[in-house]
Design brief:
single chain, alpha/beta, Aspartate Aminotransferase, domain 2, 3 domains, 7-stranded mixed β-sheet, globular
């Protein structure tokens, strides 16, 4: 293939696609902009072939993010790729659809007046959590200033199992994180332990509906009751923000009897990921405030330079409007009964697969997928004493077959415990679960029949 001199570029810093000889006459640099243009089809083929090296999303059981949508949803979102959600004057109908979604989500979470609910779409739950956290901090600050008290040392109470976005919030907005650590077989927040950390500088408590680590719901109603009792004793009023990143779009359909949402007056804001069990591709999230007065005015901006007077609540300014359209499509397409059927099917797959994994002598279940369709397991204590493999080895072996089933330590104070987790999504069928179980059993059988195969060196200390 004709090409330029390679004296100043090593092969590792260039792309040399052999099949492109008909269209290219030079190497394509990897880390600098190429000097010359190329045909659209050539650029497409170069990138398309590289992307084949990525994992197959249906086999990625580590991610909570949606990996499949209807063709009709794909078409709708494809026609709206150029729509910027913040430009509401230019795209008024997309803005109307966003407001409809906000009201629908508020009704789903039992807001007192869902038709006048305040909230916003976001890029994902991380941005939504930041807004919920800022709401708590600004309300606390206003109360302290009105009482003539210091606002120097705000703190936020949460379980050690929170997603990293809450640590980011505390660091970015200078809030002291106070963590309820794990104890024994408890890997989530304890209401009793949370209340012990409360003082007059506490801006709020974060409760999680669907822990990233094991899929459990935290006891939001019990937390609310504990804070009610604490307020009676001390006069300190502490709000709750519910991080419903995963469970916010599961619990209303599968466990409507659980009180975790705006039915509890102490819950002032809730977030969830539309791109998780809201069944939309990444990235879209939602944050809803209980009532308009729960959204501090300082967090709302008026934008005039795009035309008109637009309210902007989000941290991220520009964001894709097509994901909002995808969410609205799902709301219309599925309705409450459709969401219920989808999540019931996912939960049935999770419980079936978890039961079979738990019956293997090598493993013990920690959760079985009864809350959100997520479950995890550990090595059986007795089995681990003589096992010649760790869960990290199981994860590595499964990757040889394309599966991504992560192994990781539990949160602080129980980081000695390593678990493995499966996230069941809509495109993971019982048939696929059968295949995964067969491969997990094959891995165990391999190590049991090859006693000379020890744990990988870097993970050798984790299986006891």
């Amino acid at each position: 293939m004709p090409k330029e001199s390679r004296s100043d570029e090593s092969p590792s810093s260039s792309l040399v696609p052999t099949y492109a000889a008909r269209a290219l006459e030079h190497e394509v640099p990897k880390f600098t902009l190429p000097e010359q243009s190329m045909l659209p089809a050539t650029a497409y083929q170069i990138i398309h072939d590289e992307l084949r090296l990525d994992g197959y999303s249906m086999l990625n059981l580590a991610t909570f993010v949606t990996t499949w949508m209807d063709d009709e949803a794909n078409k709708l979102m494809g026609t709206a790729l150029d729509k910027n959600m913040v430009d509401r004057d230019e795209y008024p109908q997309t803005a109307q659809i966003e407001q409809r979604c906000i009201k629908m989500v508020a009704e789903l979470w039992n807001a007192p007046d869902h038709e006048n609910a305040v909230g916003t779409s976001t890029i994902g739950s991380s941005e939504a959590c930041m807004l919920g956290g800022m709401g708590m901090k600004w309300r606390w600050k206003a109360r302290r200033e009105a009482a003539g008290k210091s606002t120097d040392k705000p703190n936020l109470i949460m379980g050690a199992n929170v997603q990293v976005c809450w640590h980011k919030f505390c660091r970015y907005w200078e809030v002291e994180p106070r963590e309820v650590t794990c104890e024994g077989d408890r890997y989530t927040l304890s209401p009793e332990e949370a209340v012990k950390l409360v003082d007059e500088n506490t801006i709020g408590v974060v409760g999680i509906m669907g822990s990233t680590f094991d899929g459990r719901y935290e006891p939001i109603e019990e937390l609310s009751q504990a804070l009610d009792e604490h307020e009676k004793r001390t006069g300190i009023d502490v709000p709750i923000h519910v991080d419903g990143a995963s469970g916010g779009f599961v619990a209303p359909f599968l466990q409507p009897e659980i009180k975790w949402d705006f039915r509890l007056p102490r819950v002032k804001s809730i977030n969830a990921s539309g791109h998780k069990y809201g069944l939309v591709y990444p990235g879209v999230g939602w944050v809803i405030f209980r009532e308009p007065e729960d959204l501090p005015e300082e967090l709302v901006f008026h934008v005039k330079y795009l035309g008109g007077d637009m309210l902007d609540l989000s941290i991220n300014f520009s964001r894709p409007g097509n994901r909002i359209i995808g969410q609205y499509y799902n709301f219309l397409r599925l309705g409450k009964s459709g969401y219920r059927k989808v999540h019931e099917a996912s939960r049935a797959v999770a419980r079936s697969l978890s039961k079979r994994i738990g019956e293997l002598p090598a493993f013990d279940l920690i959760t079985d997928g009864s809350d959100i369709p997520v479950f995890c397991w550990k090595l059986d204590d007795e089995y681990a004493k003589t096992a010649n493999f760790t869960l990290y080895d199981v994860a590595e072996k499964l990757r040889e077959r394309g599966w991504l089933v992560p192994a990781y330590p539990m949160p602080r104070n129980r980081s000695d415990l390593v678990v493995q987790r499966v996230v069941v999504k809509e495109d993971f069928s019982l048939d696929m679960a059968d295949n995964l179980f067969t491969d997990i059993k094959r891995v165990v059988d391999f190590y049991e029949s090859h006693p000379e195969q020890g744990p990988t060196a870097e993970n050798a200390g984790f299986h006891h």
